[in-house]
From TrEMBL:
The protein, known as: Uncharacterized protein
Keyword Nuclease: no
Keywords: Membrane, Transmembrane, Transmembrane helix
Gene Ontology CC annotation, any one: membrane
InterPro entries, alphabetized: Mpv17_PMP22
């Protein structure tokens, strides 16, 4: 096991962006597989394309934006003092979290070939749930993250927790939205 850890850290040092993207690919792929196998007990057969969509989101969007966002945050707010940690968690959850949700639903919308109206309906139906649902997981997880995890290991730590959280995201991201229900909510 120590050999794998050493190899991972060597990759992280040599190619941090690629390594973090691959780490997120793994986390999102495993999360969707678990969601389909154990959470979505709707009788539908396993959807490999859905897992591919979730994995590519992890690789193309989550890993890359996480690399830059957390690097930026650590650069602007260095250290692990309690006020610094609380500020990072607040920024992550009040600014980054909704942006992440918009990117997540937008990515799925694009790769599934859906319309802008579908995207808007999805945001109206599920963004608030995604953001508020994440608070229960990510406020304590990021408190630990920003206080104790070395910056180079942040995305690995996040993806370790993200596997479980991705079960929720995968379910939410692939939940069908009835546009008639959205129109009724607006009335």
């Amino acid at each position: 096991m120590s050999g794998i850890w050493a190899k991972y850290n060597a990759m992280l040092e040599a190619q941090p962006l690629l390594t973090k993207a691959l780490t997120s690919l793994t986390g999102f792929t495993i999360g969707d597989i678990l969601a389909q196998k154990f959470v979505n007990q709707d009788g539908k057969p396993y959807d490999a394309m859905r897992t591919l969509r979730m994995g590519t989101f992890g690789f193309l969007i989550h890993g890359t934006t996480g690399h830059y966002f957390y690097g930026f945050l650590d650069g602007k707010l260095p250290g692990t003092a309690p006020l610094t940690v609380a500020t990072k968690v607040a920024i992550d959850q009040t600014i980054w979290n909704p942006i992440f949700g918009l990117m997540f639903f937008g990515y799925l919308n694009v790769v599934e070939g859906k319309s802008i109206d579908d995207y808007v309906n999805k945001i109206k139906a599920d963004l608030k749930t995604a953001v508020m649902g994440s608070w229960a997981v990510w406020v304590p997880a990021h408190t630990i993250n920003f206080a104790f995890i070395p910056p180079s290991q942040r995305l690995l730590y996040i993806n370790s927790i993200q596997i479980g959280y991705n079960v929720f995201l995968s379910f939410l991201g692939n939940k069908k939205v009835d546009s008639d229900d959205e129109e009724k909510k607006e009335l």
